[in-house]
Every structure is written in C-alpha cells, then in structure tokens.
Amino acid sequence: MSEDPEPPQPPEPGTSEPGTSETDTHRWWALAVIATAQLMVVLDATIVNIALPSAQRELGLTNGNRQWVITAYTLAFGGLLLLGGRIADLVGRKRTFIIGLIGFAAASSIGGASSGPAMLFAARALQGVFAALLAPSALSLLTTTFTSGNDRAKAFGIFSAIAGGGSAIGLLLGGVLTEYLSWRWCLYVNVPIAVIAVIGAFTLLSDRAGTRGAHLDIPGVILGCGGLVAIVYGLSEAQSDSWTAPLVLGLLFGGIALLCAFTWWQTRSPAPLLPLRIVRDRNRGGSVLIMCLTTIGLFGAFLFMTYFLQNILGYSPLRTGLAFLPLSAAIIIGATQISARLLPRVGPRFLLTPGLLLAAGGLYSLTFIDTHSSYPAHILPGTTLLGLGLGLTFMPAIATGTSGVPPKDAGVTSATVNTAQQVGGSIGTALLNTIATTTTSAYLAAHLAEAARKGGLTPAEKANIVNTGTVHGFTVAIAWAAVILVVAAVIAAVLVTAGSPRSREAAEAAVHT
C-alpha cells in the first residue's frame, strides 16, 4: 500500500468553512440531519432483535426461517453498499440521501403492516436496499461538509458515537416499544424519524450536482455486489447449517471468486465501481480493515450478552435494553470527549491501538462469567471497558478512512467504510455463533453422557448442565472476539502511520508557501 498522501482537495460548493457563526451554525444543523438518518440506519440492525420472539409468535415464523428478519436486511445492505455509494457520487449525494430516507420509511411501513413471514422478509430486504443508498450518502455529506480542523474532529466524534452506540440504542428502543406498544412499532418508528430528516435535508443540506455523462460500472456492480451477497448469505446460512455444508462452502468460495474477479476488473474498467486507489493507501486501507474487525467484536458482544441476560439471568426485553445503556454511554464518551479532543493533535494509531486493546480487555473480562454471575459485578465492568475502547476506535478509524479523497469519490469511499462495518457484523454474528454453538454441543454431549453413566439426572440438574454449557459456549466465542480485536490493534500499530490532522495541514501549508 502506498504511503503517499493524496493532494488536498478544495472545498466543494455548498460546504461551509469556519469563519462566521452563521455558517458554523448551518453546518451543525446539517450534522444533526445527517446524524438522525445514520441513527435510523444503525439502530434498525438491532431494534428488531428483542422484538423477534413477539413477531415470531404473531406471524407464525419457524425457528428455521426467523433469522431472515435479520439477515434479509444485512444481506441487502452489505451487498449493495458499494453500488449505493457510486450512485451517490454520480447523481448527487443530497438527492440520493433524500430518496434513501423516503424509501426506507416506506419499506418500514410495509414491514410494520406485515400479515405474514414473506411480507416481513421482503420489507426488511427493501429496507436494506434503501439503507445501502442512504448510509454512504450520509457519511460522504459529512465528509464534504466538515473538511478540516477541530470542527471535523468534533463532527466525526458525534457521528462515530452514533455509529457505535446506535446498535445498543436499538436494543433499548426495541425493548421499550415491544413491551409497551407492539413489535410492529419497531418498524413504524422509522417513519417519523425519516419525515424529520427529509424536511431537514431539503432546508439544510447542500451538495454539488452529480457527474454529468458518467456511467455505472455494470460488470463491477454484478461482480462486487454478487460476491458480497454470496459471502454474507453463506455466513448467515452457516449459523443453521455447518461450515462444511455444500451450500455454505459453495457460497463462500463463489463469493471469494467473484470478489477476486471484481478486483481484477477494477484495474481495467474505464469507470470503476471502487477505484483501487481508495484502499491502496495504507492508512485508509488499514482503517477499513480495522472497522471490519472491530464490528466483529461489537456484534459478538451484543449477540451473547442479549442471550445471557434474557435466558440465563431472566431479564425482560426492557431490562435487557437498559443493561446496554452503560455500553452506549461509554462509546459516546470515548468518541466525543476523548477521541474528538485528541485526534487533531495526535496520530490516529495512538488512539486506535490503545482503544482496541482496551476493548479486547473488556471482552476478555467477560470470559469469566458463569451461571451465577451478576450484572453489576461481572457484566457492567466488562461492557463499560468495551464501550470506552470502541469509542476510542470508531472515530479515528472513520475519520482516517474517509479523509483525503477527491470529492467525486467521497460517496464510494464512505460506502467502503460502511461495507466493512456490515461485513464485519455479518462475520461476527455467523462466525462467533458457530463457535458458541459447536462448543456448547460438545460440552453437553460429554457431560450428559457422563451423567447418564452415573445413573441419570433430575430435571433441575439437567437444566443446570444445559445452562452451564450454554454459558461456556458464550465465553469461548467471546474469547475469540477478544483475539480478533488484538489482531486489529496490531494492524493499527503497523499500517496506520498517518500523522495528526494538524501536522498534515501544517505540512500542506508549507508546501504551498
């Protein structure tokens, strides 16, 4: 990967530079609109998790197909993000941002009114399609609105706090809506949020026009999106089948082959879907990889802590959502009060590396939980450390991953960062769940067989072994998630060598004087 920084880009028409309180106020209101849309997209990845048992009972979902409420969304979202980012660059980011908001609200209404499983699955997939259009538009609008200085760091700190904490907020909101209204409101709630964001977008956001005469890279769309969809689909199927199932192996190897063909084609396409110069820079490529690995750890924690709190400790949906509030608060504090203040002055790896190690330490502490663990003594410390570490990580990773690109590539660069998050989330859910399930099955097979040889078990004793085996599977999977975050910390220390934004701006100013 090249270490050469790309030349600084002039501000785009319609973006404000620091100078007057009026332009500063306008920019911060624009950030509020962008952040509102991003929150809607992020929380929708988790808000239905807690509502899923209620929806399953009402619509008659089976244990085999209920996963599609989640994976229909992530499949469409992760598979189409690059296409959404390139469309935003070609036709204009504000336009695609508004179209994405309206489409997302419409799809949410259809999902809330679902009369059967097929209608709900289709609505969730449609949500993912419009989220793939909306998310890169939001991040690229942020990138081109806040171009440099302390304001950029503050803006990315707020955006990163939402990107990291929104998932936990989704768990809390899902618990509240399910317990006091209906699971359908976990989808209907997007409509008023989208209406507010659309009004704000029309009045507060500005953007350059799309690129005239430009064409989409159709072969790149087919190869890239097809490869991502195949991999995400394969990973989701690995939860119910095994990693060696012919369907899973065919999808994974087929997806890898398509992505290899995609990479080859991007070097020859006259209008590539993903210009390889975007990820060839070591700082940007390293940041994208870190985002992918970090999200594996985050989604793993959500998955297992949700089951542990509800199935082992007996928490209600609302209480489970409340239990994630300290994690969300720690992410927000780490991103807005630490990273946003330090990033203008220090290189990103001096935040990324300790942040990832801190998050790994939080996960490692959760490997000591058992069926007798309590939330205050055992869960709260670990999730708080995890949240603080993620807050230190998300902000510099997103800011570094989207900096220094030409305006015409802002959308696809933002889509690349978002794709890394979605792919990481899918890998985290599939990989870690498979590890947990396999470990639990092996534990139960050994201990139940031993008990049978000794004369059998009472129902209470059997239930205790089942719970102990389940928690053992959780802790082994969480340990692997901690190892993945340590690997990400090493990548941050080795690959991300950029200086602080202030030092880069000073160097650029010296060149031009």
Describe the structure.
With 513 residues, this protein is mainly alpha-helical. The chain has 19 helices and no strands. Helix 1 runs parallel beside helix 6 (149-180), helix 9 (218-240) runs parallel beside helix 17 and helix 15 (349-366) runs antiparallel to helix 18. The longest helix has 44 residues, at 410-453.
Comma- or semicolon-separated keywords:
513 residues, Growth Hormone, Chain: A, 78% helix, disordered N terminus
Total count of strands: 0
CATH superfamily: MFS general substrate transporter like domains
CATH fold name, please?
Growth Hormone, Chain: A
CATH architecture identity: Up-down Bundle
Q: What would you call the quaternary organization?
A: single chain
Please mark out the parts with pLDDT under 50 across 5 or more consecutive residues, or reply none: 1-22, 507-512
Q: Quick one: CATH class? A: Mainly Alpha
SS summary, helix count: 19
Number of domains: 1
User: Which class of secondary structure composition applies to the elements?
Assistant: mainly alpha
